[in-house]
Structures are given as structure tokens and as C-alpha cells.
Write a structure and sequence with these properties.
single chain, mainly alpha, 4 helices, 0% strand, elongated
């Protein structure tokens, strides 16, 4: 039997030994995945979420950084240039 999203996330968090994810964090991660998928190849979405987790930054901060990068790319610039 397949679980719904929240059931899967709760059980996976428990299996990893981490606290359950909040609804706000789920929404932010889905937004981050959407930004990455629209600014590049769709396959960048899950890897971008992984990189956000590796950074140790709050999810909202990682999302803001992804939006800044995507906006810079859409404007023809590279917000990472000179960084």
C-alpha cells in the first residue's frame, strides 16, 4: 500500500532519525524544486534540494538564494559572477 505524501515524509524522517518536517518547510522545498526546475533542467530540482540540505541553512533562506539566482539568470546576468 502506497502512503500519501505526509505519511511517507513522517515515516522517512523517523527512519532517518530526524524530526518530522513542517508543512511550511514542505511548501518551501516544493517551491525551491520548482525554481530549480524552471531555471534549468528539471532534474536539477531534487539535487538542488539536496544541496540546500547540505548547506545547513534554513529552507526559507535556501529558497531565497535560489530565487535570487534564477532571477539573475532570467535577467541575463549572473548573480554569482565576481563572488
Amino acid at each position: 500500500m502506497a502512503l500519501d505524501m505526509q505519511g511517507w515524509l513522517d515515516r522517512y524522517a523517523a527512519a532517518l532519525g530526524v524530526p518530522p518536517i513542517t508543512g511550511d518547510d514542505v511548501e518551501s522545498l516544493l517551491s525551491l524544486a520548482g525554481v530549480a526546475a524552471h531555471a534549468s533542467e528539471r532534474t536539477a530540482a531534487p539535487i538542488s534540494c539536496y544541496l540546500a540540505a547540505l548547506s545547513g541553512r534554513p529552507i526559507a533562506e535556501a529558497l531565497a538564494g535560489a530565487r535570487e539566482l534564477a532571477d539573475g539568470l532570467a535577467g541575463g546576468g549572473d548573480p554569482q559572477a565576481g563572488a
